[in-house]
Design goal:
Layout (H helix, E strand, L loop, with lengths): L16 H4 L4 H4 L5 E3 L2 E3 L6 E2 L13 E2 L3 H16 L1 H4 L3 H17 L1 H12 L3 H19 L9 E2 L5 E9 L2 E5 L5 H4 L1 H9 L3 E5 L6 H10 L9 E3 L4 H10 L5 E5 L2 H12 L4 E5 L5 E4 L5 H13 L11 E5 L3 H14 L19 H16 L3 E4 L14 E4 L6 H4 L6 E7 L2 H8 L7 E5 L3 H10 L4 E4 L19 E2 L6 H4 L2 E9 L1
Parallel strand pairs: 7-8, 7-10, 8-9, 10-11, 12-13, 12-17, 13-16, 15-16, 17-18
Antiparallel strand pairs: 1-2, 3-4, 5-6, 6-20, 11-19, 14-15
Helix pairs in contact: 3-11, 5-7, 6-7, 6-10, 7-9, 13-14
Bound molecules: NADPH dihydro-nicotinamide-adenine-dinucleotide phosphate (NDP).
NADPH dihydro-nicotinamide-adenine-dinucleotide phosphate binds next to helix 11 and helix 12.
Pfam family, one: Aldedh
Family: Belongs to the aldehyde dehydrogenase family.
Keywords: Oxidoreductase
Length: 506
């Protein structure tokens, strides 16, 4: 089958005029400022970065293009706040109350923040609303922890008292992706604050506006000035300077595996602690005994949700041979009904545009590569419409494990379908990747489910579902090249604290 050229015009999703009347001016126009030491400032260089609405291709508000000078100012403010009695000596219950205040303002402004992200980076409101609901829950979860970060009294000789103290690290740098600004930030910011650290945030350059609005909301809480600072700017300027800064004790990072490795190398120079949440090429595995209709909808959501711009996208689809043809029909049906691309602000939209022109071009080049490599395009494979960065939901088959479209993270609405014979074959194929972030298993057989859950090398395994994230209390992270360390739960607090041993001669 031949593919249509990438500039082919399918239906252009209509603009949701009604919903767009309520878009906050904050995202639409003007020059936003960064938040450093409790002050709203432009970049020291005076430079700005543009933003573009990926649905309409209209320009949006600009953000400062901060660089090393701005990062240095933010780190100095955070360092000062770290030792300021108003934060360093704050009682744990008071710190917990402030985390609850943050949850309150997020909940009160959830709709506004969700809309800002949807307009700025194109994720459907269905998704940004979910992220905001979870964001509030994450802050509430960590609000309970400051009062429970115990050290221990350690048995030793009788004339000595030995104990440990759980202490914060100092200034924490947070860098994260454009694909879920308000989804990825809380799992880093909330535990960092709960443990008593101060923070410098560097959001992705194309999706910073919700973080700047959140900073305005944080300023309305009892959080002392300088405890949270925001520097917007490019990754290779502001991001690089934050990772290299000698007064930053830890970097919490979400992004691509390539950048993650670079971050770790840079951080080694100053022996910073690093946690990395990186990319994936996760499998969906559908057994013949599964509820195939339900599986088809779940598998489609797994690689099309947020237009495939999710680190946990399950883009390698393995179906048991005996049900392949039946499953492909059901999958095509799901793809062309629920998952038709539409304006991110329309109610019910599951697949919006790609986030930026650069991301659109990147995914388009993978579609061309798929054909060059000999894949068959079952459906999709083209641009969708003639306005906005939409790509038609795309299913490939006749693929082989060595193809780049099977091995590399495309980060777009593109799935590659393959078959397997039995459980052992499914395990081998699911694990044939350098990544290990997530997996989704579809079966009604308990033994198969648990064998797969144990054998698949991934930080999260879903059985008969996909994409369900915890609101704080489950660990999240990657095996293999999908990351380092975990977010969520009690475990993550170890990544934001250090233990001190104290020995007292009695
Ligand atoms: P990057 O890894 O480049 O970006 C992630 C974050 O790191 C951004 O805030 C970025 O800033 C910042 N950054 C970039 N370079 C540096 C640096 N040298 N030092 C410190 N920070 C830096 O990912 P991209 O946004 O370029 O996306 C490319 C691919 O990465 C995607 O197509 C996808 O495959 C993957 N990705 C995965 C994510 C996930 O959730 N696992 C999230 C985002 C991307 P800036 O954006 O300003 O450059």
């Amino acid at each position: 089958m031949s593919v249509q050229p990438l500039d082919a015009v399918a239906t252009t999703p209509p603009i949701a005029e009604e919903a767009r009347r309520d878009v906050p001016e904050f995202v639409l126009s003007g020059d936003r400022r960064m938040w450093i030491g409790g002050e709203w400032v432009a970049a020291a260089s005076g430079r700005t970065l543009p933003n573009t609405d990926p649905v309409t291709e209209h320009p949006l508000a600009t953000v400062p293009r901060g660089d090393a000078a701005d990062v240095d100012a933010a780190v100095r403010a955070a360092k000062k706040a770290f030792t300021d009695p108003s934060w360093a000596e704050m009682t744990p219950d008071r710190r917990g109350r402030i985390l609850n205040q943050i949850a309150d303002v997020i909940e009160r402004h959830a709709e506004e923040l969700a809309t800002i992200d949807s307009v700025n980076m194109g994720a459907p409101r269905l998704i940004t609303r979910t992220m905001l609901a979870e964001a509030g829950e994450v802050f509430r979860y960590y609000a309970g922890w400051p009062t429970k970060l115990f050290g221990t009294q350690v048995p030793t000789r009788g004339d000595r008292l030995a104990y440990t103290r759980k202490e914060p690290l100092g200034v924490v740098g947070v860098i994260w992706g454009w694909n879920g600004p308000m989804g990825q930030l809380p799992g880093k910011l909330a535990p960092a604050l709960a443990a008593g650290n101060t923070v410098v945030l560097k959001p992705a350059e194309t999706a910073s506006l919700s973080t700047l609005r959140l900073a305005e909301l944080l300023a309305s809480t009892d959080l002392p000035d300088g405890v949270v600072n925001v520097v917007t700017g490019r990754g290779d300027e502001a991001g690089q300077a934050l990772v290299a800064h000698p007064d930053v004790a830890k970097i919490a990072f979400t992004g691509s595996t390539t950048t993650g490795k670079h971050v770790q190398k840079t951080a080694t120079e100053t022996l910073k602690q690093v946690t990395l949440e990186l990319g994936g090429k996760s499998p969906s595995v559908v057994f013949a005994d599964a509820d195939l209709e339900r599986a088809a909808r779940g598998v489609a959501a797994g690689f099309l949700g947020n237009a495939g711009q999710a680190c946990v996208s399950t883009t390698r689809i393995f179906v048991q041979e005996s049900v392949r043809d039946e499953f492909v029909e059901l999958l095509k049906q799901a793809m062309t009904t629920v998952f038709t691309p539409a304006d991110s602000l329309s109610s019910g939209t599951v697949v919006g545009p790609l986030s930026t022109r650069a991301q659109f071009d990147r995914v388009s080049s993978y579609l061309e590569l798929a054909v060059e490599e000999g894949a068959n395009v079952v459906t999709g494979g083209t641009r969708y419409g003639d306005r906005g960065y939409f790509i038609a939901p795309t299913l490939l088959d006749d693929v082989t494990p060595d193809m780049r479209v099977v091995r590399e993270e495309i980060f777009g609405p593109v799935g590659a379908l393959m078959t397997f014979t039995d459980v052992d074959d499914a395990i081998a194929k699911a694990n044939d990747t350098e990544y290990g972030l997530a997996a989704s298993i579809w079966t009604t057989d308990l033994t198969t489910a648990h064998r797969m859950a144990a054998a698949v090398q991934a930080g999260t395994v879903w059985v008969n579902t996909w994409g369900e994230m915890s609101t704080g209390n489950l660990p999240f992270g990657g095996y293999k090249q999908s990351g380092l360390g975990r977010e969520g739960g009690l475990e993550v607090l170890d990544a934001y604290t250090q233990s001190k041993a104290v020995v007292v001669a009695l």
